[in-house]
């Protein structure tokens, strides 16, 4: 996902290998990524993983569902969503909440997928193949 032709918002280790092949181990000495998209475990492992990519994808889903940025006024979207998870209709973008019940139900199903993707435990996050299946089943 690109902000501009030269500024990626989210990428994975494979993309990073193309950009800088000398760092193909998946380990970085400096923070790589954008605040709000970086999984919590990155702070102590400094390793880019597939589970981390799933986390970043979950953040993107949350952005689409809420209409909010990954970080707003210093508050991470994931933390805001988790604090408000009991009020699921409150989490959804106002425009979504004014649509049909069928659309709201689909959005709530995708919200469940997003919440699984942003689990604080990397091991608890689904694989992307499972994420795809869950999204397709939400239709």
From TrEMBL:
<dbReference type="Pfam" id="PF07714">
    <property type="entry name" value="PK_Tyr_Ser-Thr"/>
</dbReference>
<keyword id="KW-1133">Transmembrane helix</keyword>
<dbReference type="GO" id="GO:0004672">
    <property type="term" value="F:protein kinase activity"/>
</dbReference>
<keyword id="KW-0418">Kinase</keyword>
<keyword id="KW-0547">Nucleotide-binding</keyword>
<dbReference type="GO" id="GO:0005524">
    <property type="term" value="F:ATP binding"/>
</dbReference>
<keyword id="KW-0433">Leucine-rich repeat</keyword>
<dbReference type="InterPro" id="IPR001245">
    <property type="entry name" value="Ser-Thr/Tyr_kinase_cat_dom"/>
</dbReference>
<dbReference type="InterPro" id="IPR011009">
    <property type="entry name" value="Kinase-like_dom_sf"/>
</dbReference>
<keyword id="KW-0472">Membrane</keyword>
<protein>
    <submittedName>
        <fullName>Leucine-rich repeat receptor-like tyrosine-protein kinase PXC3</fullName>
    </submittedName>
</protein>
<dbReference type="InterPro" id="IPR000719">
    <property type="entry name" value="Prot_kinase_dom"/>
</dbReference>
<keyword id="KW-0812">Transmembrane</keyword>
<keyword id="KW-0732">Signal</keyword>
<dbReference type="InterPro" id="IPR051564">
    <property type="entry name" value="LRR_receptor-like_kinase"/>
</dbReference>
<keyword id="KW-0677">Repeat</keyword>
<keyword id="KW-0808">Transferase</keyword>
<keyword id="KW-0067">ATP-binding</keyword>
<keyword id="KW-0675">Receptor</keyword>
<feature type="domain" description="Protein kinase">
    <location>
        <begin position="1"/>
        <end position="139"/>
    </location>
</feature>
<keyword id="KW-0325">Glycoprotein</keyword>
<dbReference type="GO" id="GO:0016020">
    <property type="term" value="C:membrane"/>
</dbReference>
